[in-house]
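Protein modeling request. Please complete all fields; requests missing the sequence field cannot be processed.
Requester role: graduate student
Desired output: 3D structure, token encoding
Chains: 1
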Amino acid sequence: MIAGTSQRLPRWVPRLALAAGALLAALGVLTGLTRMGWNIPLPHRARLTVEHGPLLVVGFFVTLIGLERAVAVGRRFMLLGPVAALASTVGLVLAAPPLAVDSLLLLAYLGFAATFGYLLWVARTAHHTVMFAGALAWLASGLLWTKGFSLPTIVPWWITGFVLIITGERLELARALRPDRPTRIWFFTAITLLLVATGIELAFPEFGARLRGVALLLLAAWLLRCDAARRGLRQHGVHRYSAVCLLHGYAWLAVGGLLALAYGHQQSGFLYDAEIHAVLLGFVFSQVFAHAPIILPAVAGLRLAFRRFAYGAPLALGLSLAVRLAGDLLADSELRRLGGLGNALSLALFAVTTVLATLLAQRDVSPDRLISARLALQSAGAGGEQGGNDDARLSRRPVMDERWP
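Delivered output (405 residues):
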């Protein structure tokens, strides 16, 4: 991030929005436990459990990713997406009129897409194109929501949006490895197949879901083989931690692809739970764990001290998700409930270790302990003079990335 860019946004704005998003995420986790049969004393529990997905996807992730981009680039209009996302999910919680909630939710997705559209306009690179496609997938999910489509119809668009946004970010870092032409073709074939399959799934659910599974497998294989995170395994401290979390997430993406390929489009039940949470928990939250050392210093201005106990959260997530999916595949509701509780506890453990890392950073100023956002970004995979976040260096003059046509 270039000096002075983030100063255009007062520091309290992203901190307040990030805290609100975290509270909505916590509520989303609790509603998820309620859906699995745990007796969580929530007000209006029957109504809130239906909003489990939107609370996490819109209330937390649209807010978090939108904030990160707004702070990195320093354009106030980029706050439209995060603010509308928070407002729409608060409206869901408070049972606001559906028209108001739907309008705010659509505005959140529009603002989010406008953010990535702007980034693509000022820096015409392949990775910004992929991330913009992910933002459009989320916008499509918002349009389907306002048209009254069922949640199982919307979820594939959420998954596609997540995968495109995350892999677009990884594509930016992979440039430092100078991939050859077959590697580039492999990536863009998988991306195109994912978008096409998600669209086909609306009309032909079974065929589209299985085709989407193939695309997820191709992308998972590409990330495991070509992503620069593998270099981080040879390093130490936070560098290795980020690499482990990233590769852990890629493995769960492959599991999600296998499940979609094997079982097709699911509307409910055990297999539906397994298909979506292999990706939305295993893949997505592993990326959150990996990128927290980047996002928190950049967005909230918080310093973090790395300690080995940070590995506890990704380890707990992986083990508990394996238990949950075993329950799903065996149609064992108790095993599934146990795994779901473990998922929630692993996220709580991540929150606790993050707070501890922040507190430790206040008294530990050793440079080899403190997490630098730039070093953490490179450790997660950039590894070279071309590493880093191009969004912090955007100018108004479009620049074509010729290495990734």
